[in-house]
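[recover] target loaded
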């Protein structure tokens, strides 16, 4: 048996592949375009491991998808590939439409073609797991109840609108064609191998480099932080036991304001890597212009996943953020490769012309 992962050189997909192969010998075919966010250094420990087959390609390439599905006969597809950064979607939404909407459509069509031709028992067992986001639900006021799976869709950014569109396609392919899909909506992930355009890795690396720590607006926006390996465990659980056609929210139960998150990182760095001048890292905090249309609060009600599939996060925010800060301190080579752009040479460095 084999699984096909899309976007497995990104932050969550990379963690998922590492986690999967740490706990199972079931091979992974990993299809990734290596956009600016794809980083094969994340998967360096799998070099030479026959269980991991990396394929450099685009989910929008239908011929490639057809070939991979026919050749590897996966029992499941886990779909991470996306343009994922809200700020980039504000500057240039085109790539978000191409990958998140059109790419997902191409994937659905290829998977539908493959799945239709499977023998009955394989067809019944097959799953497509689509990794979506809590951002499709829009924003919450301070006293609103957290998002349940029944919350209405109110996406506010080009990114979240493109993810919402993809969700609707996935849903329709289940209702119209019977494709056995599962959709998850997770909150903000954090942990190792996180690209430093996102708040937590950006703040850690800027702090260490003596740069300002940019906090948008008043810094009172709230996110619900989920440690990435807890997310990976939830995805495995949904894949194993989720009901086709159902959606599942995944959250860490860790609502924090952005300013709290930044101050927590500063305190940890003060403890683990104090500044040479004896001052605190919080001195580097700098309030900058707010993100246009900035969603004020996200919070996830993950009780369905707990009740039906028995999943609970293992990390608290305190334990997860300490691990994360430590990871960046211990893996400065990975971070330096990203900051310098060296990570983009990794494909040819590591694999030559034949990844
Ligand atoms: P990421 O930006 O770190 O990684 C995305 C990966 O997809 C990269 O490796 C990139 O090269 C690849 N990719 C992009 N376009 C592609 C294409 N056309 N074909 C093949 N590969 C392509 O993203 P992430 O943070 O790991 O997020 C993974 C998924 O989880 C996304 O679908 C995202 O919407 C969703 N999500 C992320 C978070 C979060 O906090 N990071 C939270 C909720 C949902
Ligand atoms: O909620 C899930 C979403 O979480 C995912 O769907 C997205 O793919 C993922 O990028 C993330 O989106 P956010 O916009 O919440 O994450 P980001 O790390 O960009 O920002 C987190 C919060 O911090 C947000 O309120 C904006 C703020 N911020 C961000 C940056 C990069 C700052 O204040 N300063 C910054 O420099």
């Amino acid at each position: 048996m084999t699984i096909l992962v899309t976007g497995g050189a990104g932050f969550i997909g990379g963690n998922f592949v590492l986690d999967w192969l740490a706990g199972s010998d079931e091979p992974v075919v990993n299809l990734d375009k290596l956009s600016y966010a794809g980083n094969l250094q994340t998967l360096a420990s799998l070099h030479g491991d026959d269980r991991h087959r990396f394929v450099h390609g685009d989910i929008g390439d239908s011929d490639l998808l057809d070939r991979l599905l026919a050749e590897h006969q996966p029992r499941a597809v886990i779909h991470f590939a996306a343009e994922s950064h809200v700020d980039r979607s504000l500057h240039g939404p085109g790539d978000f439409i191409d990958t998140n909407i059109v790419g997902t459509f191409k994937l659905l069509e290829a998977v539908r073609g493959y799945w239709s031709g499977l023998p009955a028992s394989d067809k019944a067992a097959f799953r497509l797991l689509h990794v979506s986001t809590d951002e499709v639900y829009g924003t919450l006021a301070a006293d609103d109840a957290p998002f349940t799976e029944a919350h209405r869709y109110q996406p506010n950014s080009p990114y979240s609108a493109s993810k919402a569109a993809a969700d609707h396609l996935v849903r329709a392919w289940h209702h119209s064609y019977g494709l056995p899909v599962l959709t998850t909506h997770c909150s903000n992930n954090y942990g190792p191998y996180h690209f430093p355009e996102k708040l937590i890795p950006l703040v850690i690396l800027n702090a260490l480099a003596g740069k300002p720590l940019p906090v948008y607006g008043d810094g009172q926006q709230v996110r619900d932080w989920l440690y990435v390996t807890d997310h990976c465990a939830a995805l495995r659980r949904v894949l194993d036991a989720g009901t086709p056609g159902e959606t599942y929210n995944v959250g860490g139960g860790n609502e924090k304001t952005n300013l709290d998150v930044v101050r927590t990182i500063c305190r940890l760095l003060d403890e683990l890597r104090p500044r040479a001048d004896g001052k605190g890292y919080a001195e580097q905090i700098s309030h900058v212009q707010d993100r246009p249309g900035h969603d004020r609060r996200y919070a996830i009600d993950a009780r369905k996943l707990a009740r039906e599939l028995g999943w609970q996060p293992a990390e608290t925010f305190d334990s997860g953020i300490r691990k994360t800060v430590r990871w960046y301190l211990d893996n400065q080579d990975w971070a330096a490769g990203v900051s310098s752009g060296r990570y983009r040479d990794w494909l040819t460095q590591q694999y030559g012309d034949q990844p």
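[recover] notes: The pocket of DAU (ligand 2) is lined by residues 84-86, 133-135, 187-188, 198-199, 202, 214-216, 221, 223, 258, 291, 298 (CB under 6 Å).
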